[in-house]
TrEMBL record:
GO biological process: one example: anatomical structure morphogenesis
The organism of origin for this protein: Acromyrmex echinatior (Panamanian leafcutter ant)
GO molecular function, one term: calcium ion binding
Name listed for the protein in its UniProt record: Protein dachsous
Domain Cadherin: 128-293, 294-400, 413-511, 512-613
Annotated transmembrane regions: 103-123
Domain of life where this protein originates: Eukaryota
């Protein structure tokens, strides 16, 4: 057998012995019995040194280092220079009980000597190990007999297994092999005992359980929390007690937030022992309740002259949840209401305040949508309506509306209007109150008595003509309408307008002069200006537009717009030295009116014609006794108009003189005597 084989064999036997003794595989502190059996099969003298090395290697494997140079007193094991020895570790602690290595080294030496008989070879099977199993109930009185090791082969050398408190809890009679209890045993503290009775008996004592311990909870009270929305049959496990708690029904923190459970643990003994555990279950809140307003609709009144910041009304909502799930924040839904932000709301208190100046006349009622939202991770919300009525105050003057009854709705009236004819319609309203405007007092001023105000119901007023109108006397009137409401204090409004008197064609054009005088040279060319006449018309517009015209004029024409008279042909003084023209001025009214004036044109002659006798020869017979001054020939010559004052030369005794313009008479100038006749 090689060294490695012996080492493996020793380790395996040590593990088996430890398992039989009730200890773990780490309790390899006493594997000597296994080696005793094997040592009897081989020559101790030859192999002693090799086995000591194997034993030392097996005993000290997986142990903490000892100081160098250590050697046990029995020279079984030592640590040479350059090697390290480890101290046994049992359940995380250095081994301190059972006599320690020193006692076991001594025991090993004695056993080896007694068993091997100073090197004699034992018979086969001489060291066969037997196991004796005994039982004893816990809590029996001290001195109670447990049993005997083996009645056939006393006395015994008792070797308790290290870590098994045989010496403190049991009494072992080595002479008889009887085992008794030294103290009351406790199965919960030590369920079994192991010992070795040399030469070859191993005793295992099992402590039987008695129902002497009630079930024990680690703590008296347990606090557990469940969300209220936990589904039915959900299980919750406590990490310490391994209690399996199951929800049997739906939880609702708002109905019940805490539960007190008493859990009773019973063992299976007779009689059973009990223990109790108090379990306090807290139902955790989840955000499963939306806010709820105490009213589905709110109504409030506020005067229109309320200043910014005036409180209006406080809304109130509650939330059955807890913590942030139950904390409510108020707001106004601006998408559905109050986009002008006339009001604001305190998010914490729900108080609504005036945010901007109000105006009853602009908006009499405001409808607000108020939202209450909790502060849960997934917030819930609710809405309500707030209707705010703006009450009126007397802060507006009456409103005067004037509608003129002319054809184009402008302030005008014809001068031909009859008495009582309507000029305008006046209505008065008061924005402050829709019922108070009928109490307004309305007056009319101006117009110099030509206009008046009449009404039938104190609501609609009419401006009427009370005196005849004449545009030519006054074409514009300043009228003023004043309305005073019935408020306290009263407010008044005034409306002033200019009323135009429109024209009718009641005036004919009028010339500056009734008769005009003009002079014109006979040699004037056509188109020569003669004279310009002018007429005015007191009317206006088309009624005052004058057109001029001439009646029966051959040589002359007149511009119908300017009234300028000009020649259209050459004039002839001899034909008409002083023509008289009749000029007409006509307006454009309907019907048109006209007037006339006369123009006398004096044509100055030009000597452009020789005198012409009507006959080349005139014969006249006169008595010789015709008195002087008697004319005997009339119209002997008709002179040209160029020079009506013609010159004549006398031939003979007759006298020639002009009698009238363009007429010649021949008269006796002196006594005539017939030639060749003598009176005697």
């Amino acid at each position: 057998m090689t060294r490695d084989d012996r080492t493996e064999f020793a380790t395996d036997r040590a593990d088996r012995l430890c398992q039989l003794s009730g200890r773990g595989s780490n309790a390899r502190n006493v594997p000597y019995l296994a080696f005793i059996e094997e040592l009897g099969k081989e020559n101790l003298g030859k192999e002693r040194a090799k086995y000591e090395e194997s034993v030392r290697f097996a005993l000290h494997r997986d142990r903490r280092p000892r100081r160098r140079g250590w050697k046990d007193r029995d020279n079984i094991a030592s640590v040479e220079e350059g090697e390290e020895e480890e101290e046994e570790v049992v359940e995380g602690r250095p081994w301190r009980g059972g006599g320690g290595p020193r006692m076991w080294h001594l025991l090993l030496f004695l056993v080896l000597g007694a068993t091997l008989g100073l090197g004699a070879t034992p018979a086969p099977g001489a060291l066969h190990e037997r196991v004796k199993y005994l039982e004893v109930s816990e809590n029996v009185r001290p001195g109670t007999r447990v049993g005997f090791i083996d009645i056939d082969s006393p006395p015994y050398l008792i070797a308790p297994v290290p870590g098994s408190p045989v010496e403190t809890d049991l009494i072992i009679e080595s002479a008889t092999g009887e085992i008794r209890t030294r103290v009351p045993l406790d199965r919960e503290t030590r369920p079994s005992y192991s010992l070795v009775a040399l030469p070859r008996v191993r005793v295992v004592i099992t402590v039987l359980d008695e129902n002497d311990n009630a079930p024990t909870f680690a703590v008296d009270h347990v606090y557990i929390e469940f969300p209220e929305n936990s589904p039915r049959d959900q299980r919750g496990r406590d990490g310490v007690l391994y209690l399996d708690l199951q929800i049997a029904g739906s939880l609702d923190r708002e109905i019940r937030s805490r539960y007190h459970l008493v859990i009773e643990a019973l063992d299976g003994g007779t009689p059973p022992l009990r223990s109790h555990l108090n379990v306090n279950v807290t139902v955790q809140d989840v955000n499963d309740n939306p806010p709820v307003f105490n009213q589905t609709r709110y109504d409030a009144n506020v005067p229109e002259n309320a200043t910014v910041g005036t409180p209006v009304l406080a809304v109130n909502a509650t939330d059955a949840d807890a913590g942030d799930n139950g904390r409510i924040e108020y707001s106004i839904n601006r998408r559905q209401s109050d986009r002008e932000e006339m009001f604001r709301i305190d998010p914490e208190t729900g108080m609504v305040y005036v945010n901007k100046a109000l105006d009853f006349e602009s908006k009499e009622r405001h409808e607000l949508v108020i939202v209450a939202r909790d502060r849960g991770a997934q917030p819930l919300e609710a809405s309500t309506f707030l209707s705010i009525r703006v009450t009126d105050v007397n802060d507006n003057q009456p409103d005067i509306t004037v509608i003129f009854l002319s054809d184009d709705a402008t302030p005008k009236i014809s001068e031909s209007a009859q008495l009582g004819e309507f000029v305008a319609r006046i209505s008065v309203s008061d924005p402050d109150s829709r019922t108070e405007y009928s109490n307004a007092t309305v007056t009319l001023t101006g117009g110099e008595g030509h206009f008046g105000l009449t009404t039938r119901d104190n609501i609609i007023y009419l401006v009427v003509v009370e005196r005849p109108l004449d545009r030519e006397e006054q074409s514009v009137y300043e009228l003023s309408v004043e309305a005073t409401d019935a408020g306290t204090p009263p407010l008044c409004a005034e409306r002033t307008f200019r009323l135009l008197v429109t024209d009718v064609n009641d005036n004919a054009p009028k010339f500056e002069h009734e008769r005009y005088e003009a002079h014109l040279l006979e040699a004037s060319e056509p188109g020569t200006s003669v004279i310009q006449v002018f007429a005015i018309d007191l009317d206006e517009g088309v009624n005052s537009a004058v057109r001029y015209s001439l009646a029966n004029a051959t040589w002359f024409a007149i511009d119908e717009t300017t009234g300028l008279i000009t020649t259209v042909t050459h004039v002839d003084c001899e034909a008409n030295p002083a023509p008289i023209l009749v000029v007409y001025a006509t307006d454009s009214g309907r019907p048109p009116l006209s007037s006339s004036a006369t123009v006398r044109v004096t044509v100055h002659d030009l000597n452009d014609n020789e005198p012409i006798f009507e006959k080349p020869l005139y014969n006249a017979t006169v008595p010789e006794n015709m008195p002087v001054g008697r004319c005997f020939l009339k119209n002997a010559n008709k002179f040209s108009p160029d020079n009506p004052m013609g010159c004549f030369t006398r031939v003979g005794a007759a006298s020639l003189r002009p009698a009238e313009r363009a007429a010649v008479r021949i008269c006796i100038h002196s006594t005539m005597t017939r030639p060749g006749w003598n009176k005697g």
